[in-house]
Design goal:
Length: 266
C-alpha cells in the first residue's frame, strides 16, 4: 500500500452509517466468544489469531460484499480482496492477545475507508464498555455508544505546546525503536503504553503516541481520528504512508520537536 495523497473525495453519504453498523455487529460477534474457550493459533509472524478473529472478519466481509460489492477490502486475516478506488481496511479484533486472556479493556475492531489513498473514515470500538470512536473527513472526531448514532463527545487534541511538558507513549520493540525512545525520554515525559493511546491523543489526554509494529489496518482509523480532532498523523519519515510499520499521532504542536530528536537515534 502506498502513501496517503489528497484527492477529491468519493464518499457515499451512507458510508459512516454502514461503518457504525459494521462496528456494532462486530462487537456482538466478538462478545459471543469473549471469556469462552478459544481456538488460538500462531500466525507466521508470531502473532495470535483465534476463531473469534475469523468469525468477526467473516461477518464484516459478508456485510461489505452485500452493501459495497464494488469496493476493495484489505483485512488482517484475509489480506487484499479486489482492487478499486475505494478500499475498506479491517482489523477484526485489534488486541487479540488481550481478548484471548479475557481482559475487558484495550481491544476492539478497527474499520477505515480509503478513497484514492486518502483515509476518509475511521471507526474504533471497545465492545465490553460499549463505546465507539469515529471520524470522517471534515466531519470531526467523536465518541459515543456503540448502539447509538449520536455523539456524546466531540474530541479535541491537547494544547500542550512544548515537548518537555508533554506526555508521550512510545511502543518500542526493536533496538532502533528503543534507541529513539531513550532519546525522547530525556526530553519528554514517557508514560506506560496501552492499546488506547491513539484514542487518548484524540481526546487530549496524551500529547504524542508513537506506535511501532503496526500494519495499515492498525494505523488508518487512528490517523483520521487524531487529524479530525485537530492533531497530526505521520509515518516515521514525516510522510503519510501506512505501510512503514510505524505511526506518529500527536496534538501537532510537539510533533516536529519529537521527530527531530528521534531522528538522531536512527
Amino acid at each position: 500500500m502506498t502513501g496517503l495523497r489528497w484527492y477529491p473525495l468519493d464518499m457515499n453519504p451512507g458510508d459512516l452509517a454502514l461503518a457504525r453498523k459494521l462496528a456494532a455487529r462486530a462487537a456482538e460477534v466478538a462478545l459471543r466468544y469473549f471469556r469462552h474457550p478459544l481456538n488460538v493459533q500462531l500466525k507466521p509472524d508470531g502473532t495470535e489469531v483465534t476463531d473469534a478473529d475469523l468469525a468477526v472478519e467473516a461477518c464484516l466481509l459478508d456485510a461489505l460484499a452485500h452493501d459495497r460489492p464494488d469496493d476493495a477490502i484489505l483485512s488482517e486475516e484475509r489480506g487484499q480482496i479486489g482492487q478499486a478506488r475505494r478500499t475498506w481496511l479491517l482489523d477484526p479484533i485489534d488486541g487479540t492477545s488481550l481478548f484471548a486472556e479475557g481482559r475487558p479493556r484495550h481491544w476492539g475492531t478497527h474499520i477505515a475507508l480509503q478513497v484514492d489513498e486518502q483515509i476518509v473514515l475511521g471507526v474504533i470500538t471497545r465492545p465490553v464498555a460499549g463505546h465507539c470512536w469515529w471520524a470522517t473527513k471534515g466531519g470531526g472526531a467523536h465518541r459515543g455508544l456503540l448502539q447509538s448514532s449520536t455523539s456524546d463527545q466531540v474530541l479535541r487534541v491537547s494544547k500542550t505546546p512544548r515537548l518537555p511538558e508533554s506526555s508521550v507513549v512510545f511502543w518500542a520493540e526493536s533496538a532502533d525503536e528503543r534507541r529513539r525512545r531513550d532519546l525522547l525520554q530525556a526530553e519528554a515525559n514517557l508514560v506506560e503504553p496501552t492499546m488506547d493511546c491513539i484514542l487518548e491523543v484524540a481526546a487530549g489526554e496524551l500529547d504524542l503516541a508513537i506506535c511501532g509494529a503496526s500494519s495499515p489496518w492498525d494505523l488508518a482509523p487512528g490517523a483520521i481520528l487524531v487529524e479530525e480532532a485537530g492533531g497530526r498523523f505521520t509515518d516515521p519519515a514525516g510522510g503519510r504512508r501506512l505501510d512503514m510499520g510505524e505511526g506518529w499521532y500527536s496534538n501537532g504542536l510537539v510533533h516536529d520537536a519529537a521527530s527531530s530528536i528521534a531522528a538522531h537515534g536512527r
